[in-house]
Amino acid sequence: MTHYEPIVHDERAMNMRSGGAKMKPATYDGNASWPDYKAHFDACAEINGWNDREKGLYLAVSLRGQAQGVFGNLSIRSNDYHLLVTALEERFSPPNQTELYRVQLRERRQKATEVLPELGQDIRRLTNLAYPTAPADVRETLAKEQFIDSLANVDMRIRIKQARPTDLNDAVRHAVELEAYNKAERQKMEGHGYMCNAQMSEKPDDCMKILKQFMQEMRNELRTLKSQRNSKTDPWVRQPKEQSIHPRSNKGKKCFECGELTHLRKRCPKQKCRFCFLHYGETHLRRECPMLSTIQRERDETKQSYHNDQNVNTSFQKGSGLYIAAEIKRM
């Protein structure tokens, strides 16, 4: 009697012999999240049935850019999967950085060209990194509140809060709907604006008539301004003053002694009260006195001699007071 041994099919060996993998992992350059890529790579490795050595080789050939530099810096056992994963985690996802992720989560705001689903996904990633030990419902609530606060539109934030979303996905759904409604409403208003412009431009003759009338008014005003500028009666042009025939006369002023316009009263030669306080005479005034300069010079010399005759002697010794001796001569 012939016994047949059961045939065991090794799926991993068949995949390797077939010359390829069922699911090829994506490449990693260090810009994306390392935990997300590691989860993706582990899923591909499980589908393909790779062992640790094969996972190390496939992970090494999937690295690009900065991540490839981390692989090149490994000195020994470069194909070791666990050693390579540890090096990548230390480079792109170091531990004990929850405070950094919390600050990034608080400062996260919607960018100008960023769509709402991408914003929600990034906030969920930062929430999971900032609060790794928190319960799932707490992280979902924190992500929902931060997503609402990060929206740029104030009206959208208020409407989403009034809708009371249950989780982050519900808040993202409300935000996408409101954004679509607002966009459709703006397009509708712009269409009404085009219709109004089309209705106003139905009568081009009236518009041209109004434009010609306005241009004619502008020409008339410009012509008037030019004529006023060239004329002497222009209020905006400063006219030179007319020179009087009397060089020392002022407009509207005259001598109250004789009534002439050539001088004022204080310089009138016919002034009745003319008295000199130096000579006590009535022939001239004090300022016209011929002896004024001589008398003034004598007075200056007298004052100078008075100051020179004041002899002031001062003496000061160490340890004693101040003694001043002065002698004043009276004239």
What is the gist of this entry?
The chain is mainly α. The protein has helices at residues 11-17, 34-48, 52-61, 65-72, 81-92, 98-106, 116-130, 136-149, 154-163, 168-200, 204-230, 292-308, and strands at residues 311-316, 322-327.
Features:
331 residues; mainly alpha; single chain; 3 domains; elongated; 12 helices; disordered N terminus; two-stranded antiparallel sheet
Describe this structure in words.
This protein is mainly α. The chain has 3 domains: 11-92, no CATH class; 98-196, no CATH class; 269-315 and 322-331, no CATH class. It is built from 12 helices and 2 strands. It has helices at 11-17, 34-48, 52-61, 65-72, 81-92, 98-106, 116-130, 136-149, 154-163, 168-200, 204-230, 292-308; strands at 311-316, 322-327. A two-stranded antiparallel sheet has the order 1-2. The longest helix has 33 residues, at 168-200. It is elongated and about 140 Å long. The chain starts with 10 loop residues before the first helix and ends with a strand. 11% of the residues are buried. Residues 1-10, 12-19, 243-249 and 312-316 have low confidence and may be disordered.
The helix content is: 40-55%
Structural class: mainly alpha
Average pLDDT score:
76
User: First CA to last CA: what distance?
Assistant: 169 Å
Categorize the overall geometry: elongated
From the alpha carbons, calculate the radius of gyration and give it in angstroms: 53 Å
Structural topology:
Elements: H1 11-17, H2 34-48, H3 52-61, H4 65-72, H5 81-92, H6 98-106, H7 116-130, H8 136-149, H9 154-163, H10 168-200, H11 204-230, H12 292-308, E1 311-316, E2 322-327
